[in-house]
Structure formats: C-alpha cells, structure tokens
Write a structure and sequence with these properties.
The complex is a heterodimer of chains A (about 300) and B (about 100). Chain A is about 45% helix and about 15% strand. Chain A is an alpha/beta fold and about 300 residues long. Chain A folds into two domains: about 5-240, Phosphoenolpyruvate-binding domains (TIM Barrel), CATH 3.20.20.60; about 245-295, no CATH class. In chain A, the strands form two sheets. Chain A has an eight-stranded parallel beta barrel with strand order 1-2-3-4-5-6-7-8, surrounded by five helices. A two-stranded antiparallel ribbon of chain A has the order 9-10. Chain A is globular, with a radius of gyration of 20 Å. Chain B has about 100 residues and is α+β, with helices and mostly antiparallel strands. Chain B has a single domain (about 5-90), classed as Ribosomal Protein S5, domain 2 (2-Layer Sandwich), CATH 3.30.230.10. Chain B has a four-stranded mixed β-sheet with strand order 1-2-4-3. In chain B, helix 1 (about 35-55) crosses helix 2 (about 70-85). Classes of the chains: A alpha/beta (about 300), B alpha+beta (about 100). Chains A and B meet through helix 2, helix 3 and helix 4 of A and helix 2 of B.
Amino acid sequence: MGEALTDKKKRLRRSMLFLNAQKPSLIRDAYLYGPDSLMFDLEDAVAENQKDSARFSLYNALRNIDYGRSEKIVRINGLDTPHWREDVRCAVAAGCDSIRLPKTETARDISILEEEVFKAEKEFGIEEGTVLLMAAIESARGVINCMEICTASDRLFGIALSGGDYTKDLQTTLSPTGVELMGARQHMIIAARAAKVQCFDTVYTNVNDLDGFRHETEMIKQMGFDGKSLINPRQIPIVHGVFTPTDKEIEFAKKVVREIEEKSAQGIGVFTVDGKMIDIAFYDGARRTLEMARASGKLR
Amino acid sequence: MKLLKPAAAGTLESSDCFVSIEPSENGIEIDLKSDVIRQFGDRIREVIGETLETLGIENCTISVTDKGALDCTIRARVESAAFRSAEIKEEIPWEKL
C-alpha cells in the first residue's frame, strides 16, 4: 500500500454528515457547517422512483461544487438492488473520495464492490486505487463477520454501525441507553483496531435531544470509535467538541512525542513523562491527539 | 440522444427546478418560469441550451420552472428528464456530461 493511500485511509473522520443526494438545498449548503466527511446518500433517503434523478444530482454537484476540506463519500444502494452498479459508475466518474456499502455481511460483498470500482476507475481514466471503501454493518451476520470484512480490501478505510437495521435484525428497538447496541459496538471496534481500520458509530436519531447526543458521543469516544454518523448539522460542533483534546492532554501528547523521538535517538526504549511510564506504544496515540488538536484549531 | 416520450424531473422546492421535456420536430423551444427571471433568465436559458447541446438534442419542447436552482441543479434536472424521455436507465455516459 502506498503512503498516499495510507494517509487518505487514516484521515480525520470525527463527523460524517448524511445528506440526501437528491435535495439541492442540502447538497449546496451542508459543507458550510464543516463536517470532516459528507455522506451523499443514494440509498434510503432517495425514493425508489428517484434513484436515477439522484445520480444526476450527485454527479453535477460533485463536479461543480467546491466542498472544501470535507471528504466526499457516496452511500450507494445495496448489492441486492438493481441500482448499485450504476451508483458506482456515477460516484467514481463524479470524483468521489470514497464509497460506503450498506448492508455489508461478508468479505465477498467488499470484493464484489471493489471489482466494480476498479472497472469504473478504468472506464473513466481514474488512477487505480483512488476511490476508498467503507462498509456499513447492519445485521448480526455482519457483526459476526467484521474481521473478515475489515481485511477484505486494501481500499477499505473503515466500518460503520447502522443501528436502525441492526436492531431490527436483533428483533429489538433502539433505546435511549443504547444497551442493545453495546455488543455490536464492542465487537466492531475490536475488529477494526485489530485490522487497523477506522470505526464509526451509528446516527443519533433524536435531533432535538442534544444532551443525549453529547452523552452518546462521549461514550463512543471512550470506547475507541473514530467518529459518528450524523443527520443534522447541529450535531457537528458537539462531536468536534467531544473529540477535541483538552489543554492538559495536548501538553502531555507534545511531551510524549518529543521525548520518544529524543530518547529513541539515544537508544532508550522506556522512560517516564510526568510520572507515567512511556514507550513507543504511546507514540501513535500522542500524534493522534495532536492531529485532533490541530483539526479543532487548538493547535497550529 | 433520441427523445421517445414526455418525461419530467425535479421538484418545486426551494433551490430546485421542475423540468418537463417532450420530443418535437421544431428545434428547441424553451418555456422558462422563474422568480429571478429578470436577473438570471438569460443565464438559465443558456444552461438549458448548453445541456441539451451536450446531450445531442436538437428538437424538443422543454418547460422549466425554476425555484432558485444553481446551474448544476438545472443541468442535473434537464439531464434526468432527457434520459427518462429517451428511456435510458443504465450505462449513462457520465464522462460526456
């Protein structure tokens, strides 16, 4: 895997804002709120008889609107629909950064998608490997198969829980505590970390309950998630706030990075920073803290 | 592109436009309605004309009701209506649009 691809896969994705690709008012303005990623939806948000029209809307938006620093991800229709192949052709031709596959259940699902993305890159003269993939996990089978899904393709940068469909598959419903999602969340984050890909939490559907949203975001950050899918721009500053390191964390991370770089040059592997034992294992985490501090504007 | 039947796309929501198109034999006839026709009427007609030209459509009657759509939205709705009229659903020549 090339360094550029690795960097693209690891970029900061605290906030992924869903927007209906068929709605001009949304695709025009959503990036103004500064989400790390925009998720242009061709799937559930688009009525069955508007799938074709949504593609033309998506294509023209991606070709003509400058979305600034926001990543452009397209959620295509599932492999069990007649729409997904044309969705892939459209998204790749339009210049999307990534494609999200809904209802992913096996590594084979990712392989099938990857083959189609490769064909589209070739057809439209785009360098092979440009378009990344992510997998939405929406069923018990998908959760069980997370590890094989995470390692199915070099293009895959992460997996995301889709809580609504997942709870239907579990024969339960979403609750304020989210207890029904805990098993999937724990399993997914462990699989993602083992495979060295990112992991994203499901949407919080009550857009008026911002305290509940903040609480859930704090919980999933503590669990290790990289970010959260969002359905309303009002949720963006809350996620970014939760994922912004404190001044104390930033100062400690600076010291850890500096000390590890200095000590390793001197051949010293283990030492202490502010009374805590530190070794090379802390390096990536500290750099990640600094990266999040820069993204939030707390560090230049 | 050969238009086969009357077709439409878009909505009357803010920032969108509603486009209906049908085959004809009398060149391009554009019927435009817009709240901003005085300021942007010429530009909207230009976008519609360019889009039809790109699609290789030389004869049609097209009606556009604009609700403050961006150029890219007008193009998208004209393309969508035209491909529906031509009954082309797959293998869209995206690179030519």
